[in-house]
Specification:
6 copies of one chain form a homohexamer.
Chain A lengths: L7 E3 L7 H7 L4 H7 L11 E2 L6 E10 L5 H9 L4 E7 L10 H9 L4 E8 L2 H7 L3 E6 L11 E2 L3 E3 L2 E3 L4 E5 L2 E5 L4 H23 L4 H4 L3 H6 L3 E3 L1
Parallel strand pairs in A: 3-4, 4-5, 5-6
Antiparallel strand pairs in A: 2-6, 3-7, 3-10, 8-9, 10-11
């Protein structure tokens, strides 16, 4: 759902810098979300339209009314290479706001993909194009072009606040929003986590228990855990 | 959900003509739904049980009570080659009304597939058979054979009205019902749309914006859209 | 949801015998559920995280509070080769209680997979590991380690009662719980059903109607079914 | 959801006769639904906006697009005293399509109430007016007036097929549709049921068991029921 | 959902003692649930059919198949004064399994009310009778009498395990199950909690902060909480 | 769901001015939402815990983790007379984060009510206190006090962005957020709308059609609407 005024297109937005986006793209959503302190995740109903879809880029946001995708065309003009379009609707709607024609246009502008809190269609074509989309629904139902919304304002998409220029990272585990100002720090924290995990993984694979590796036994006892036979 | 009286099997139904069904089968659900004026789509919770499932055929309808699939066997006898069984239940139910044995029987009768506003099971076998099913749920739970319903009456399936003999088209984007009387006209309109889309697609791929191709800029301005920096 | 007291880990549980588990593993969930008299099925929202995931093993149960996966590490120590961890939460939660590190640990202990009435993450890695998981949700959101729950108590998971040591069987059609005491009998009944189905299948494939094969016509007429033209 | 073509208003519809509507209005929804053979019930998410709301009248139908209530005004003109407006939307939408101004207009035309598979607003005012509404949602969100739908075509509302002129009966137990052609017969069957129930009620109140009153014991035993201590 | 074998009625069950049930009836569900260590609560979709409904009694359990309420009549015979019927269904169903006739019968047997993981009807009459019911749905749709289930076996109702004879307590906050063996202890713990709360309430009403009353400030600081201006 | 960093309490926030809040409190949510251009509405699942509950005040925000209400006590200290606490959780949770003790404390601090995207309990007491709460769920399940969240940061609550100090208005029609900076303008627009509605209402009550009053006939014809008999 959107956050404020309608009928506005902001042309100049500040995008997270490309090097940071590239660095973030190397990590999974779970790692980045954890690195950020467990905030910024969209709701779990947002799913990729094909297995293996993933994307990372800077947000161009669009807010529309239910059943009306006019602003998608307005958003297309604001896309720069490396952007991800993040689409919100003013109330719940599963209509197909996006299909293969818009995907062709978005890709021609350099878009990395789409995240939409609504429905999309032409999923067979989108899959053939390998154009990654994360959506709430799949629906053949088309939309009209009658009311204006906004482009590049702050929007709430699937429960997460997105500002234009934020980094959007999506994979099999969901969609996370990294505010542009925190992107570098998040990338570094993610890298640190990942380095840290390799060693843990090999210990666990060797049969070491998390109880011992993380030294949990004392804490559990203090918390009152009892073993019985 | 069903629409009227129970305990009736209609043997002679008028099916949409084969040439039209064949023509409709060449188009996607989104195209046909659009061609029909955006009516006749089932709700978006109807999903294929395997990726890539699609079907096109004439409806044999069946209305059952929750947890009771007796009428599926009655429906089997009414199937003619090229039919799609459309199954509705008098109230919401996720039980598995259909599995590999019924699929074997339906296929032997010439059925093209099943659309059911309830659950199915044996999905691994159905996938191996490449027997297309669009359903609300997958459930191992079997059903009883105790109460009669009806076959080949008008039914409401996943929010769409289906008369026996209507054309049912289903793919990754959903399930659409084309009334038999409108089938030829829908096929022609779908064809016209598709021819029209190829040119649009190549323009958009070349970077032309929908804003310009569809001449939207003036309308947007009149609707009050403002650009800011 | 869980069934009784918190803060307890039961170390010695009686598992269904290995030969019976192995025998049950040859059948599908639909067959076994039917063989048991249509009881013991988890709700249909429990889905495999990758196509084709299936598992069969003896239950190690764990009950946790929402957003807290501390007890997963406690459960890991109780796993014996051939076990399936069955995880319940005291109230609805979609957080990711489980990821690739825990999967590595569980596998090192000999676990056959996980059934969890909550979310999991790192699904790409879990798929690459072919570690079967049946869950309610996929979520990148991690959990804390602050409150104790229990291990190897009776739990309610997705609507089904699970005692430690019960046989858990899961495939594309869902998840069924076979109480340890009934496992042998269920396996035999499943075998009988399956033998019985081969003959039915070939008759149906040859075009024999279920109406005739199951001798339903008289019953339907008695129940009031009318044929009209 | 709607059933066919858009952009049409049918002015002359055949309404169920007033005496029959009046007779049906004396019964509860459960009684009438049962009398009709358990068909024609809307889905259970349709709820009255205030406790005790109930209505009975002849349907004026309206089909709209999501977020667009233009056709409500078109429908108003078609209302005759004793009508109930039945509103469907081409895809799921919770927006508030109806509020106190439209209720004032509908009442001035003689409407008995509204049944809508979407949202309504101004519920405090509607309650004060005692204008009965059965809806899927309550939402303050207003709608636009940009696209045409249809009035007095067959519509699917909350899973039930409604033709203009059908009798609509709604109370605490839900909403049932009685086709105009079956209304008299349904009213008579409902009356018979109700007469029949008074005697049953007094027997049950005196402690007679349904098992004995309905002579169920033998059937249960034949069905395999066992009593244990 | 149910837990084990079908077709069985257990006549002699051990009920929690009357004095304890009476004592538990003085407390709210939230208090008792807390006193038990936060286990045994049914899912939050279980709601009273009228405002202010509440009940407390010993469970007579019944397990039915979807759309079939035959066993309700069997359960009626097993009711003793002070019992609450707890009804589960083998898969999700919203049909109306219970109405005013059964309520009349149950009340004549001394039942305190009904808790059902399905639908009920005749809610206006039930409200007039002040017969408390907690259910998942309200539906006018009736059921058949064709298949046997069980009475007084362990059932899973709305996510909670219920054994016959357990104490069932329900009010505006939900439904909690107190195992018979733990009932006395739960009643005492609830009493202790309640005595404890009066003092807290008056302190808080006087403006004392929970931060101070519960001495939370140090813990919060240790957990890293920062105050900024 | 929350929007950014955890572990922070902001003490000094800028609240919308009291006169404007008081002015907004005279209007309904539907009127204010419309006056703002149809933005800022929370999702429709947010419902009052008792009929007639309504509130208007300035937001004190709190972000918590699922199952953990520790920060509610931290928020209590930040409440000033006229505030409404707006509570968000980092992932979906229905637990009862709030009951009569916290309500007593909040009221002692001058709070006007609570809006929470989670569950609450003790609803009977809250109703007796006439302490207005709008929530997603009612649940007896209590929470722990183990993890820190934040107070007075921007949060996303039920799909709407809320900054501390914004005006929160809630009644039977839902919950709307009015950004502090736009509050005066929204109040004036609401007043203008309301004045405008009285005249419309009396015209409609006199039988004037919206079609004529709003001069819609020509637009409808242009849009293609056809009348048939």
């Amino acid at each position: 759902m959107g956050t404020n005024q309608m009928g506005v297109v902001k042309r100049n937005i500040e995008r997270a810098d490309k090097a940071t986006v590239e660095k973030l793209s190397r990590f999974g959503v779970a790692t980045v979300h954890e690195a950020m302190g467990r905030v910024g995740l969209m709701q779990t109903y947002m799913r990729p339209i094909y297995a293996g879809a993933h994307l990372c880029g800077t947000a161009v946001t669009v807010l529309m009314h239910p059943g009306d995708n006019w602003m998608m065309h307005v958003a297309a003009e604001q896309i720069q290479p490396g952007d991800v379009v993040v689409a919100a609707v003013t109330s719940e709607c599963t209509d197909g706001f996006f299909g293969d024609l818009l995907a062709t246009s978005f890709r021609a502008r350099g878009a990395k993909g789409l995240v939409i809190d609504a429905g999309v269609r032409d999923t067979k074509d989108l899959t053939a194009m390998q154009f990654p989309v994360f959506s709430k629904a799949i629906s053949a139902k088309g939309t009209i072009k009658a009311t204006v919304g906004s482009v590049n304002i702050a929007v709430v998409c699937a429960g997460a606040l997105v500002h234009p220029g934020d980094v959007i990272l999506a994979d099999d585990d969901g969609v996370v929003v990294v505010p542009a100002a925190l992107a570098r720090q998040a990338a570094e924290a993610a890298e640190a986590r990942e380095n840290n995990e390799a060693e843990k993984r090999s210990k666990l694979a060797a049969g070491v228990l998390g109880l011992d590796m993380y030294k949990m036994r004392e804490g559990l006892e203090r918390a009152g855990l009892k073993y019985i036979d």
